[in-house]
Write a structure and sequence with these properties.
46% of the residues lie in helices and 15% in strands. By secondary structure, it is of the alpha/beta class. The strands form 3 sheets. It has a 6-stranded parallel β-sheet, sandwiched between helices. The protein has a 4-stranded parallel β-sheet with strand order 3-4-5-6. A two-stranded parallel ribbon has the order 1-2. The model has no long low-confidence stretch (mean pLDDT 95).
Length: 365
């Protein structure tokens, strides 16, 4: 597994390699990892050190990282039957070249950024995709975008992200206990879990919350995450008079996220750009309906899960507030069909089996 991140990072391209490694080990396979970072003491993992940011415009740090990748990846590639490469970085592309040199197939998974921002002119990136035995995309929208860009792909498919077992339906009594820790019995609980970043557009969510509280002063919004937009968002919440209606929780552990999503009446996603928003899937797995902007991932989930996902226009606080208020006026949990879809298509066992199928096909040539 070649990936820029591993836990404790909570990025999708950290969680999926980690989860796949666990699932493969349970099936008797051996997995090794190559990732960025200082030596974290993780068994079976080699680390490539990120170089000084101030020198990155000179490309010297990238060249040093590429050289270290070549040195550390070579014994891993030679000892492996196959590589699974997650996302596109210097490290990932160097590992791909090593795979070709040592005649090892590689499977590539794209998560979003590398496809959304591809300009058609990067020939290295095109070769990176062309030479993969199979390219898996985190969503249908990403695969459609790759085809629009005419990326050369031998084989390609959509493999959605897995949802952890901690995200599951709770009994009414268990939910009541979780909710009692967070708000009064008659209150309404909204949750957003995303990095605090302009693309997550929590600013629009705060503007919508300002409208929501005029009609539902009992509503509480919990925002879990950290990032460069944190100070500005807190200042915006204060200007809007939301001090008693919005809480910024910072980074929270996955176990706490699972409890928040199970307790919530509604998960609200205000993002401008998503592939498949894993946190929205986790909310649905917890029995909590979703209101999302019409980013590609939000629209795709609505197509899969029907009216358990309500979609509104991006950057439209009034529309977002209206959808939230409508949902709170008729509170409910997700449909049984949604639980069935999660179980059959989005749990780790089925995702791991799908990737094992891709690995077998790649090894057969």
């Amino acid at each position: 597994m070649v990936t820029p991140h591993l836990p404790p990072h909570q990025a999708a391209n950290a969680l999926l390699p980690h989860q796949l490694g666990q699932a493969l080990a349970e099936r008797g396979h051996t997995t090794r990892f190559l990732t960025f970072g200082a030596d974290g003491g993780r068994p079976g993992t080699a680390y490539v050190r990120r170089r000084a940011g101030r020198l990155r415009p000179t490309r010297l740090p990238q060249l040093l990282e590429a050289a270290e990748t070549w040195w550390k990846a070579r014994p891993l590639v030679r000892a492996s039957e196959l590589a699974h490469i997650h996302s596109s970085t210097w490290m990932n592309q160097v590992a791909a070249r090593l795979c070709l040199r040592h005649r090892r197939p590689y499977v590539l998974t794209h998560y979003g950024t590398e496809i959304w921002h591809h300009d058609r002119r990067d020939e290295r990136f095109r070769r990176f995709n062309r030479d993969a035995a199979h390219v898996a995309f985190y969503s249908r929208a990403l695969l459609d975008r790759a085809r629009e860009l005419e990326l050369p792909l031998r084989q390609a498919s959509v493999v959605y992200p897995p949802v952890g077992d901690a995200f599951a339906l709770r009994s009414p009594a268990a939910r009541d206990l979780l909710r009692a820790r967070l708000l009064p019995p008659e209150g309404a609980l909204l949750v957003n879990v995303k990095r605090l970043h302009p693309l997550a557009d929590q600013a629009t969510l705060l503007d919508a919350m300002h409208r929501v509280r005029l009609r539902r002063p009992d509503a509480l919004l919990l925002i879990a995450g950290a990032g460069e937009a944190e100070a500005g968002l807190k200042a915006r919440a204060a200007r809007l008079g939301l001090d008693g209606s919005v809480r910024f929780l910072g980074l929270v552990a996955n176990e706490q996220v699972a409890e928040l999503l199970a307790a919530a009446d509604l998960f609200v996603l205000s993002s401008l750009l998503e592939a498949t928003p894993t946190v929205a899937l986790e909310a649905l797995a917890s029995g909590t309906p979703v209101v999302s902007t019409d980013n590609p991932g939000g629209k795709e989930l609505a197509g899969v899960f029907g009216d358990d996902v309500t979609v509104v226009p991006m950057r439209d606080p009034a529309a977002l507030a209206g959808a939230i208020l409508a949902s709170l006026a008729a509170p409910r949990r997700t449909r049984p069909a949604t639980a069935g879809l999660i179980a059959s298509r989005f749990r780790l066992a089925s995702v791991a089996e799908r990737y094992l199928q891709l690995y077998r096909e790649a090894l057969q040539g």
